[in-house]
């Protein structure tokens, strides 16, 4: 734990009210493996869309869903719970309702190798669980979507007509893996 980290409810709330673009960019750049809790096989569900998008951007995404365990999702084997992970992950992404966040954070904190980050999807926030994770040295991002953040920071969202809040006269740098896939690297 960092000695100056304020783990009071007020401190946690203040720390997670806003995230600096540089911090989100660094997180996404340094993340390689993601355990996506709540992955769906339904292509219309946001968790499926996020799973597919992140996989296509080079992240090693491990789908976790007890109802789909034993099957596969986009060619990836689905496991039932975090405790079944075969190795360490950089990020645990919680794509479940807010009531499930606390127990899932606790499950992540029981892994043999702690993740570097716990990311709670849009609409998911649990300040008490975040304080438990941060007390163990695990970073937390709440009420954000890594797909949206990646798209916003890379400029991809701007390609679809959505304001990315990034103004630049520089042409976005294309990813080498396809058309209109931009990177989150600084321009």
């Amino acid at each position: 734990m960092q000695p100056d980290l304020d783990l009071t409810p007020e401190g946690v709330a203040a720390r997670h009210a806003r995230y600096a673009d540089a911090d989100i960019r660094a997180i996404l750049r340094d993340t390689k493996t993601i355990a996506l809790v709540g992955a769906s096989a339904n292509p219309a569900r946001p968790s499926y869309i996020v799973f597919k998008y992140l996989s296509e951007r080079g992240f090693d995404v491990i789908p976790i869903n007890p109802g789909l365990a034993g099957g596969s999702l986009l060619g990836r084997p689905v496991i039932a719970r975090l405790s079944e992970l075969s190795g360490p992950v950089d990020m645990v992404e919680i794509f479940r309702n807010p009531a499930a966040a606390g127990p899932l954070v606790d499950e992540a904190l029981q892994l043999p190798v702690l993740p570097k980050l716990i990311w709670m999807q849009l609409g998911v926030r649990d300040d008490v669980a975040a304080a438990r994770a941060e007390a163990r040295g695990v970073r937390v991002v709440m009420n954000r979507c890594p797909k949206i953040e990646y798209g916003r920071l890379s400029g991809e969202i701007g390609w679809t007509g959505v304001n990315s809040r990034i103004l630049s006269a520089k042409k976005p740098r294309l990813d080498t893996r396809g058309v209109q896939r931009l990177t989150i690297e600084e321009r």
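The mean pLDDT is 86. The longest helix spans residues 46-56.
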